[in-house]
Write a structure and sequence with these properties.
360 residues; alpha+beta; 2 domains; ten-stranded mixed β-sheet; three-stranded antiparallel β-sheet; 16 strands; 24% helix; 22% strand
Length: 360
């Protein structure tokens, strides 16, 4: 049942033609390690298009019902837990379809259902190496990422493109709203084939952790561009990490925001200081180590958002240059037709470094 290790599912001409037939623009990203432009396979793209292009505008009550918790649980049951989807042949087909590398998985023989497959653990200490420099900020997930800034004078300024800043952190959290004002952010979009554990991008003490209730919008690019600030409408967990502590990353406060999406039923907080051993719920006062598992999405596609304080980090040059790649086609844009192209990154690899904090 083993499948060769692949960074991403193979882009086929059949899929390309299918997307053209549906008269929707293709969505491409940059594969970081090769620089290759890859056309993404957008799961359930036709259904998502009908839901967000038609139901949202013509039947808003139906749309609200279809993005509710009850409907979301029904989607997840149908997609991951029906007996017909747990047969060995069905699981093998899914592994091949998603391009999952069984060689990097812990206990691959236990991956006997779609749900177990999506909640798989990997030997990240072997297959997701991490820079030893504690001032390197690392990716929290295997994901496709974009970066931006809140300051209008910044070249990365993306005014309310993906979320409303105040709603994202919570309007009743003035302390944290003030702390990150004028700073920078990174968005990580986890697609269904990805490994769905979230890891710590930095080391530090937990200052706060809280949940904000919301709905279950899809993170499909076609759905995102039709919604106004979608990520701040979804249910999410916010963790504030103070890195200016002994053995910390020394880049100020970092907000790690885990956002549920369509067919994500839960976010399980399960921090482990070594491998996946002795998982614990994250709580204020805990010290969290960079690169270690923090939480698990159950299952489907989802989004992580990282917020940084002003001038505390600088993003890697390749991620910045990829964002405005001239030959890739992206459904995301920053206005005036300028595309925003995602970079495919792996959990625990460097995405930013310590910035030029001026002490202000």
């Amino acid at each position: 049942m083993a499948t060769p290790c692949m960074d991403t599912p193979i882009a086929s001409s059949e899929r390309h033609n299918h997307m053209r037939m549906l008269a929707r623009p293709e969505h491409q990203y940059i594969q970081r390690h090769t620089g290759r432009v890859v056309t993404e396979r957008l799961f359930s793209d036709r259904i998502i298009h009908l839901l967000y292009a038609h139901a949202r505008e013509n039947a808003p009550r139906v749309f609200d019902m279809l993005t509710s918790r009850r409907a979301n649980d029904g989607y997840a049951l149908w997609q991951y837990d029906l007996p017909t989807r747990r047969s060995p042949a069905a699981v093998t087909r899914l592994i091949r379809q998603l391009g999952i590398c069984l060689e990097e998985c812990l206990a691959p023989e236990a991956l006997t259902s779609p749900r177990r497959l999506f909640e798989r653990q990997i030997r990240f200490w072997q297959h997701r190496p991490m820079a030893s420099d504690k001032c390197h900020i690392v990716s929290p997930a295997d994901a496709r990422m974009l970066v931006g800034a809140f300051a209008s004078q910044s070249q990365l300024f993306l005014k309310e493109k993906f979320f409303d800043y105040q709603d994202l952190l919570g309007a009743d959290k003035p302390k944290w709203l003030n702390a990150f004002r004028g700073g920078q952010f990174a968005i990580f979009r986890l697609t269904p084939e990805k490994y769905h554990y979230n890891h710590l991008p930095v080391s530090g003490h937990v200052r706060d952790i809280y949940e904000i209730q919301g709905v279950y919008h899809s993170c499909n690019p076609g759905a995102v561009v039709r919604m106004v600030t979608p990520y701040s409408k979804n249910r999410r967990v916010v963790t504030i990490i103070d890195t200016d502590v002994p053995n910390g990353s020394h880049i100020g406060l970092v907000a790690m925001i885990e956002v549920v999406a369509l067919m994500i039923g839960d976010i399980v907080q399960c921090y482990s200081a070594h491998h996946y051993d002795a998982p614990r719920a994250v709580a204020p006062g805990m010290f969290l180590k960079r690169g270690q598992p923090k939480s698990l999405y159950r299952p489907g596609s989802s989004v992580d958002v990282l917020l940084f304080q002003k001038n505390r980090v600088r993003f890697c040059d390749d991620i910045l240059s990829n964002q405005h790649h001239l030959s890739a086609h992206s459904r995301f844009s920053s206005g005036f037709g300028r595309q925003l192209v995602e970079t495919d990154v792996r959990v625990r690899e460097t995405i930013a470094m310590k910035g030029t904090h001026d002490g202000g």
